User: Fold this.
Amino acid sequence: YEVSHDDDAAIQTVPTVKLPDTRDLEVLNEIINETGDDRNVIGSEDRVVMVVEDDLRFAKIMVDKAHEMGLKAVVATSFGDVFDLANKFRPVAVTLDVKLPDASGWRILDLFKNDINFRHIPVHLISGEENRLLAMQRGARSFSLKPLKNEALHVLFEDIVRYKDYRPKHVLVVEDNELDYSSIAKMLHHDEHVAIHIADTGRKALELIKEQEYDCIIVDYMLPDIGGMEFIQEINNVKKLALTPVIIYSAKDFSPKEKTQLKQFANRILLKDVQSLELLLEEVVLHLHIDHKDLLPEKRRIIENLRSREDVLANKTVLVVDDDVRNLFALTTAFERYNINVITAESGQEAINILGDNKHVDMVLMDIMMPEMDGYETTQKIRREHKNNVLPIIAVTAKAMKGDREKCIEAGASDYITKPVKIDQLLSL
Assistant:
């Protein structure tokens, strides 16, 4: 048992608690043989695409297309593989199927976009159901609807190849206030990575859009010549801007109804205030898929400080319930790296006693397979005896079995995950 963690802050990896490996070598060989997965022949100079897909036939189609475009590919068929492969191969892009056997693709997308070390990687979401708007709002580079036709597949991989090598990224700022657009340009400009273009009216912006392609558009809602909603709807109808993120950056305090309308066309809405320029930098870096380590030192610090402030579990207390002391030790070590306080219990009854004495537990991590009182019964007793339906209880199971999640939720768990436990996965729950 060990906690995998790189101590060099400049090249941090996703901490993984190494619990017993349940993947059979034969299954791994099947993935490689059936899809043409390149994991055993990847060199340091190769550009790698990670295909997250449990349908091996479709995965092979994706791998073949990657090869056709001069890329190498690795295939992750379950959640347990995703971040191990991302750590090892540092892919230039990820194609992500929404439906996986042990996790939702939406959850994996959120994990990528909330991890400072992976959030720059473009994630191309693939689904059998139309959810384009939600995908773009949550940070996906693109959204494709299954089944993918050859033309759509080619467009997807063409974007992967082009976007990785294409510099600088062009940002259009639509803002009539000179002080504001000067501040934005100063904050966002970064040598060869980002080029800033200014339009002080909506009509001028529309002319510029005809002449050039932009990778991100920042819009002040209060324009002098055209209504903000009208302008945003107009650029939404421009076909070549289909993948272009739009960020509304305005002093206007939008009503809930206005926000709902705007979210149909905009990836993010930011209110101008004291900290908003820093938030704008973070959003642009995220949507342009720039690695924060490539930023100038002062801007890199801004991103890192914003991310550390968002660490919702820092200084919180987690109760870890597991009858295996090795698991308790591994999880405690991993949590403490995130400044999380840990209390441990080796049985269900001990966990119940601790909760009776300690009113300041913020989350419970509950192993399901324990002797005497298992995780299901312990969870039920906690809900019943402590009359606490708010406390997050995360159930942990050794394998993803059909019906497990339903059983855990029925017993009173807030969510459920499978081993090996990934700390970043817990932080996103």
In short: Confidence is low (pLDDT under 50) at residues 1-23. The two ends are 24 Å apart (CA to CA).
